[in-house]
């Protein structure tokens, strides 16, 4: 089949699924809703596999139509299939399909089930546009579209005001990033006269490293990435986004949408390689985000919040990789993270399902006996994210840290600290949830049950991938880095020295040894605290002081934003409305009066020419007089 | 002939309606508006995408003075003709839900208004333009003053005087320009054809003051900061159909005027004062948006959002770029659709709950899947989500402003963020959350209401997904106009 047809089919299937379940909400029988939406996702997955297997190594472009064109600027509605979009396609449709299937079990009793599945399909549609678009504006369509779906799904249970606020916060914070992205696109247009990737990257190779314009472009685009991929200072929406149903957290807020920022930078790697300053900035923000979020994760007690902060932190690691031009390592971590974080969220969903919507790990414990499949898969996911060999997370994180080591030892040290925290908070979560004595209510204990097959099957598949995902890119030139190499040809051309460092083997083994030791050490520490000593986190009401208070309250960042940004804007709004308008009205009235007096002078100057002027004047005045005469009701 | 029919048909229909005293008057008005829509759609469909005037009419008016009764449609006006044709039947239909006193007067005023608007957008003679520009004020003034809210008399009188006052500046400028035209060797022969003004060689001083005369006239109409203080009260106090006419179509007279007169006639004036004018426009975007965030009255909130949006259109025009102008033209169409839809949603909610205050609403979505979907679609258009109509306009406008001045472009871009804040807040507080006593029993859309919103929703996506159906039509005229700007 023709490639352009296949390209268009990929986003089309979910769009059709959305149309059927969306327009037919409450009309399509509940038993068909799930199969329709899952079939849509699976069909896209199948087409993606076809494209992948038939991929020749050369990028393929498919143009549907000329979308917006003004003067010399043409923005095509077109797709580009290359190594990067294929990888993203497989993740998005593959993990996406599994989560659709899982959602059937998780959401089928909800009164908005049809709407939920329709929104998931719509999300896939936009996400697929994002990763297959052949220019920045199509990427932007997807970018904003997934933001909309994220908004709709976070606030899915819209009777709850807090959930709605979380949804709105997510949308608005993302929009802050989107403004950066949009301005970046404008600068791209100014600089390159095009928004097409191929045009821009081809021209970019003629720029010098450190070019000011490229610096501005890459920084602005990165602002967009900060919003979507939850980096400091735009990360606070992601933990709140946990208000959405758990499959949403797994799909949108862990495996796919939040990695769009990484995708964007890998896509634009030539530009970023041209701008070392931007890479430095990304590195600083990435490591700060990784550590800050991980430290907050240490003390969270909501099973989903722990995973949310973990996601923020892991995204930091991905950006850390990008900041040292290790683009394929960043992508590698995107892939493995999609496996194990989706697994962990879905596992958490299974727990929440069994616990009658309880999310507080202080009220759990001992669940491994009741949820054996969930437990085993969650355990595998935990080992994978903690970075213990030979599971997937070990290889991808280690690859990032190895590249960072070559670039900057201090950054590497900090990365290791974050890695230690990751292992600790994950094992803490695992132990508190599945080990020890059950701490919930009698009613909850009575209701405990393993989830249905539609939910456990995706867990098993993802667990296998989390265990074996490392095979994609084993140390010493694995398949993935080889596959992705053509993407970085431009980068290698503009800055050979910043790109493609080889690590010698002894260093590599040493680094692996250190990170493994750190991960296992942290796991043991967690074991000692939560298994040997049976520690349970203090209840909500407990007094906390010093650093514990600061961390437990997430460093009061939300409060800071509230005081420094939200309230001043509200106050300004009130002030402008109550006083500003009044003052302007007064001034305008006064000025108008003066100008009218002056125009009377002007009229005298024009006294030689009467004619039509007088006629028109008289007409206007007559209109006023007539109207005033009639309007006395 | 087509253009003249577009002006005369509503006049004739409206005049006949005044004579009818039966309940069928609203249906007849709708029928007339639909025939007009068919004409406008025909004009749009058969319009040739070039820079020429089409469907022209031209008769002597004040023959001795070179003033002609002439009109036509070109690329600058074609979308506005379409907009006027499209929105009038929808506005008429939207009024069916409420019983207005003296319906024949009410509906005939809507049609008179339409005739005047068609006249404004098609006039080729400057004084004819002025005549329609002023005439458009009268029907809407009566609509607001006779069927408006409690404070209608004071509010509408202010509106009337304010805008009439602004137009006087334009009149002075037009008369001045008229006297600058002429044929060498033939003193006393002048022309008031708008195109003849384009080729005048004005002194820098004249360029300056003519610039401000036009600017003030059009800035009041749109309105641009700080000439906006008449607007929120007028929008709130007017009956919703009048508010729709004002915000959906009438304010476009201001943007249209900037493009038709200010840009090609006083390019040097724009060169000197453009930065200040753009700054004022951009200030209005942020100022209006920040105020909108704090409004509790849905109508007032939409009024401030409209004020913010129109500021961006003005800034786009002042950028003197093809992007900015194309953006302004398509955004006029998009904004008209979105704002009329949003005001209608506010009217529907008011009709059922007797309140427009967000703190008294909530949870409406529980019983209203249709209303929720339409409201959401209009909201997305309004916040410029890609693939909706608002995106195309805002993307081009912001791109134009950004090209003109990076910093102003970035500040104007705040509309992306602030628009999301106030729109989502409005949606959330009315549709989501717990129900209130007023929203407990809330009926979903009636058939007539759906028929107003459906065409609007279709347009939201049509313009968003395939904007070239409109951009291609206006492009030659825009490029042609820009030649005068860089002369």
> Element order, helices and strands of chain B?
HHEEHHHHHHHHHHHHHHHHHH
Mean pLDDT of chain A: 89
Summarize the biggest pleated sheet of chain B: 2 strands, antiparallel
Q: How many structurally independent domains of chain B? A: 1
Distance between the termini of chain A: 74 Å
Give the low-confidence spans of chain B.
none
Q: How many separate domains make up the residues of chain A?
A: 3
Portion in strands of chain B: under 5%
Counted beta strands of chain A: 2
Specify Rg of chain B, calculated over alpha carbons.
21 Å
- Helical content of chain A stands at over 70%
Distance between the termini of chain B: 33 Å
Task: Kindly estimate the percentage of residues of chain A that lie in beta strands according to DSSP.
Answer: under 5%
Q: C-alpha Rg of chain A, in Å? A: 28 Å
Quickly give the structural class of chain A.
mainly alpha
Describe the structure.
The complex is a heterodimer of chains A (633) and B (487). Chain A is mainly alpha-helical. Chain A has three domains: 1-134; 177-552, no CATH class; 560-630, no CATH class. Chain A has 26 helices and two strands. Chain A has helices at 3-23, 30-53, 83-107, 113-132, 136-154, 161-192, 197-204, 212-228, 237-240, 246-255, 260-267, 269-273, 276-299, 303-323, 327-354, 372-386, 392-407, 409-434, 442-447, 453-468, 479-484, 489-494, 505-532, 546-552, 557-605, 611-630, and strands at residues 60-70, 73-81. A two-stranded antiparallel ribbon of chain A has the order 1-2. With 487 residues, chain B is mainly α. In chain B, strands 1-2 form a two-stranded antiparallel ribbon. Chain B has one domain. In chain B, helix 3 runs antiparallel to helix 4 (103-122). In chain B, a hairpin with a 4-residue loop joins strand 1 (54-62) and strand 2 (67-73). Chain B is globular and about 80 Å long. Chain B contains 20 helices and two strands.
């Amino acid at each position: 089949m023709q490639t352009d047809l296949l390209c268009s089919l990929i986003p089309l299937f979910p769009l059709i699924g959305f149309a059927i379940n969306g327009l037919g909400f409450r009309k399509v029988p509940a038993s068909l809703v799930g199969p329709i939406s899952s079939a849509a996702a699976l069909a896209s997955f199948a087409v993606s596999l076809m494209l992948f297997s038939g991929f020749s190594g050369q990028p393929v472009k498919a143009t549907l139509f000329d979308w917006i064109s003004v003067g010399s600027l043409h923005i095509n509605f077109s797709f580009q299939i290359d190594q990067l979009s294929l990888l993203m396609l497989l993740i998005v449709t593959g993990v996406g399909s599994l989560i659709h299937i899982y959602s059937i079990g998780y959401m089928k009793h909800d009164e908005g089930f049809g709407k939920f599945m329709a929104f998931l399909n719509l999300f896939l549609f936009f996400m697929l546009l994002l990763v297959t678009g052949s220019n920045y504006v199509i990427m932007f369509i997807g970018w904003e579209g997934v933001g909309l779906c994220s908004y709709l799904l976070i606030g899915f249970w819209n009777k709850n005001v807090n959930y709605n606020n979380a949804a709105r916060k997510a949308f608005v914070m993302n929009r802050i990033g989107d403004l950066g992205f949009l301005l970046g696109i404008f600068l791209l247009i100014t600089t390159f006269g095009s928004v097409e990737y191929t045009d821009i990257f081809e021209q970019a190779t003629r720029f010098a490293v450190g070019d000011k314009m490229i610096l501005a472009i890459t920084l602005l685009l990165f602002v967009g990435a900060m919003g979507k991929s939850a980096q400091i200072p735009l990360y606070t929406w992601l933990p709140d986004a946990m208000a959405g149903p758990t499959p949403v957290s797994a799909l949108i807020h862990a495996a796919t949408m939040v990695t769009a920022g990484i995708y964007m930078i890998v896509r634009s790697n030539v530009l970023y390689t041209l701008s070392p300053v931007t890479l430095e900035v990304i590195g600083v923000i990435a490591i700060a985000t990784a550590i800050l979020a991980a430290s907050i994760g240490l003390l969270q007690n909501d099973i989903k919040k722990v995973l949310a902060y973990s996601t923020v932190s892991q995204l930091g690691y991905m950006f850390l990789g990008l900041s040292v031009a290790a683009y394929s390592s960043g992508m590698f971590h995107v892939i493995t993270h999609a496996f194990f974080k989706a697994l962990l969220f879905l596992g958490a969903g299974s727990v929440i399902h069994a616990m009658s919507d309880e999310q507080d790990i202080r009220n759990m414990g001992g669940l491994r006996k009741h949820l054996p499949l969930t437990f085993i898969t969650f355990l595998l996911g935990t080992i994978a994210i903690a970075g213990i060999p030979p599971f997937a997370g070990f290889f991808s994180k280690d690859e990032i840290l190895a590249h960072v080591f070559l670039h900057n030892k201090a950054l590497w040290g900090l990365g290791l600290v974050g890695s230690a925290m990751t292992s600790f908070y994950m094992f803490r979560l695992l132990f508190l949830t599945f080990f020890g004595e059950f701490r919930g209510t009698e009613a909850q204990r009575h209701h405990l049950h393993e989830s249905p097959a539609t939910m456990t099957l995706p867990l098993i598949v993802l667990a296998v991938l989390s265990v074996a995902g490392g095979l994609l890119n084993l140390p010493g030139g694995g398949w993935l880095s080889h596959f992705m190499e053509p993407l970085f040809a431009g980068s290698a051309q503009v800055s050979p020295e910043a790109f493609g460092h080889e690590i010698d083997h002894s260093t590599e083994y040493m680094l692996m040894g250190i990170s493994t030791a750190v991960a296992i050490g942290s796991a043991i520490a967690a074991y000692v605290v939560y298994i040997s000593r049976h520690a349970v986190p203090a209840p909500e009401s407990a007094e906390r002081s010093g650093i514990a208070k600061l961390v437990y309250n997430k460093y009061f960042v939300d409060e800071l934003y509230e005081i420094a940004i939200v309230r001043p804007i509200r106050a300004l709004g009130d002030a402008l409305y109550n006083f500003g308008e009044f003052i302007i009205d007064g001034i305008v009235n006064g000025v108008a009066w003066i100008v009218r007096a002056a125009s009377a002078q002007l009229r005298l100057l024009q006294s030689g020419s009467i004619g039509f002027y007088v006629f028109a004047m008289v007409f206007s005045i007559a209109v006023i007089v007539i109207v005033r005469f009639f309007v006395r009701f | 002939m087509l253009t003249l029919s577009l002006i005369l048909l509503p006049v004739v229909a409206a005049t006949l309606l005044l004579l009818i005293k039966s309940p069928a008057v609203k249906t007849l008005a709708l029928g007339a508006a639909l025939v007009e829509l068919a004409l406008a759609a025909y004009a749009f469909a058969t319009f040739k995408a070039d820079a020429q005037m089409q469907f022209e009419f031209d008769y002597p008016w004040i023959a001795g003075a070179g003033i002609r009764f002439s009109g036509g449609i070109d690329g600058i006006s074609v979308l506005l003709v379409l907009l006027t044709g499209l929105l009038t039947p929808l506005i008429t239909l939207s009024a069916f839900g409420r019983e207005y006193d003296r319906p024949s007067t009410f509906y005939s005023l809507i049609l008179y208004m339409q005739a005047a608007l068609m006249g404004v957008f098609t006039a080729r003679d400057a004084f004819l333009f002025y005549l329609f520009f002023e005439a458009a004020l009268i029907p809407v003034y009566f609509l607001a003053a006779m069927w408006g809210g409690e404070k209608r008399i004071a509010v509408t009188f202010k509106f009337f005087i304010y805008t009439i006052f602004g137009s006087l500046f334009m009149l002075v400028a037009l008369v001045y320009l008229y006297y600058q035209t002429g044929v060498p060797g033939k003193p006393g022969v002048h022309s008031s054809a708008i195109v003849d003004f384009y080729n005048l060689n004005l002194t820098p001083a004249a360029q300056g003051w003519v610039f401000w005369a036009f600017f003030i006239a059009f800035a009041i109409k749109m309105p641009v900061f700080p000439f906006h203080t008449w607007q929120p009260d007028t929008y709130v106090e007017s009956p919703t159909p009048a508010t729709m006419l004002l915000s959906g179509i009438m304010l476009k007279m201001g943007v249209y005027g900037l493009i038709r007169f200010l840009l090609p006639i006083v390019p040097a004036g724009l060169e000197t004062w453009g930065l200040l004018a753009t700054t004022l426009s951009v200030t209005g975007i942020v100022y209006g948006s920040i105020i909108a965030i704090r409004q509790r009255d849905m109508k007032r909130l939409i009024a401030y959002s409209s004020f913010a949006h129109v500021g961006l259109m003005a800034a786009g025009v002042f950028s003197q770029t093809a992007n900015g102008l194309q953006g302004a033209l398509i955004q006029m169409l998009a904004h008209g659709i979105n704002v009329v839809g949003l005001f209608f949603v506010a009217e529907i909610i008011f009709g059922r709950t007797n309140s427009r205050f967000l703190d008294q609403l909530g949870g409406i979505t529980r019983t209203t899947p249709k209303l929720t979907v339409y409201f959401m679609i209009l909201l997305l258009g309004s916040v410029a989500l890609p693939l909706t109509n608002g995106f195309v306009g805002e993307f081009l406008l912001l791109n134009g402003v950004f090209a003109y001045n990076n910093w102003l472009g970035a500040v104007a871009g705040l509309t992306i963020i602030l628009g999301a804040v106030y729109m989502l807040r409005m949606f959330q507080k009315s549709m989501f959350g717990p129900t209130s006593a007023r929203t407990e029993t809330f009926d979903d859309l009636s058939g007539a209401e759906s028929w107003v919103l459906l065409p609007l929703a279709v347009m939201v996506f049509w313009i968003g997904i395939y904007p070239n159906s409109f951009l291609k039509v206006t492009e030659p005229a825009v490029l042609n106009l820009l030649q005068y700007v860089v002369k």
